[in-house]
Specification:
By secondary structure, the chain is mainly alpha-helical. It is built from 19 helices and 7 strands. Belongs to the short-chain dehydrogenases/reductases (SDR) family. Belongs to the mTERF family.
Length: about 400
Amino acid sequence: MTTYLWKILSSYAVVSPVLSGSPLKRLYKSVNLKVTFLNAEDVAEVAFYFGSDVSRAIHVLSALSKSSWVAKRDIYKRWGWSEKEVSTAFRLQPMCMGLSEKNIMSTMEFLVNKMGYNPLLISEMPMLLLHSLEKRTIPRFSVLQVLISNGLVEEEAHKMTTLLNMPEKDFLRSVCTESIFLKCGSGSKVSATEMKASSLTAILAKSGIGASTAKVFTRYGAKVIIADVQDDLGATICSENQDIHFIHCDVTQENDVKNAVDTAVDKFGKLDIMFNNAAISERPTTSFLTIDKDDFKKVFDVNVYGGFFGAKHAARYGIRVNCISPHGVATPPVKSVVGIDLSKFEEIVSESANLKGVVLKAEDVAEAAVYLGSDESRYISGLNLIVDGGYSTTSTAFRMAVKAHFSN
């Protein structure tokens, strides 16, 4: 057996002639072998370079029978490896021969058939074989697939290998944070919210922006409750998306709002986000001089107290409080207010902003809500996020555009 071990170690360039007894004894003690091939008398015949790779090689070989070595070698050869490739892989990472035959086969099958690796490339990067298939390789590959499909990571074998091999902390920082933030800055709809599959829960929604926001949140894996007085509209939205649920809610009634929050917690186990969007936006039917007190109070009850009740009852679950202030969005309620075609309204709004050629949509407001509700904004609270294409810097332009339209 000693001769066999000597030949194996020599073929992988990990042994040298004995120079002295003392270094050999120190090395033999350092690797703490449960020897199967060597015994106390035989050990004097072989000396090993002092190093971790040699220690691993000895550990692997001392636990292997010759038949087991041959069986594992043959599995690699089935994937196109030659004796040279097997030798290279063992020299670079001895533990690739310490894996079980089942583990070797399943890992090679996933790397080659699922990830598209060239089998010969794996022999040059045998560290890929040592990662847990269930705990690292498959989960990271799933993340990388999403990143590659959205242009966040280049589909290059060496880069993929680096990402699979790097420690978890570095992977999360360089891939699931930096890459995603860079892409989100250029308008991608991929967010770390999607990576984490967060269970974002309740939204108070109405038609227009509220309905769009509910749908966008589900795109990121959220479970959503929409709460509104429009029962028919709520039923229609729910019929189109199984991740959206409806509950009747009059936001002017505090108990209704409390019930909406409690329903979300009972159904999903927690409340992550409250999107207060219910509001009255109707075209005035009378002048300020003749407006009725009850009509004025109704606007305050919905637009002010409705938001207050939502924040009050969501505060029990430690939410942050932020605000979104969009420019004009062409929604059905807006059409009833301005009395013009929505495409014409979009044209007027676009002309008043600085971002020429970009039209503000309800989905843009929804994406802003996703950001403020995700962990990416975990240190943001008390912010008024203005989504207006630069209108705030040229606010007189909107008045001029509207005046020009109605003067024609």
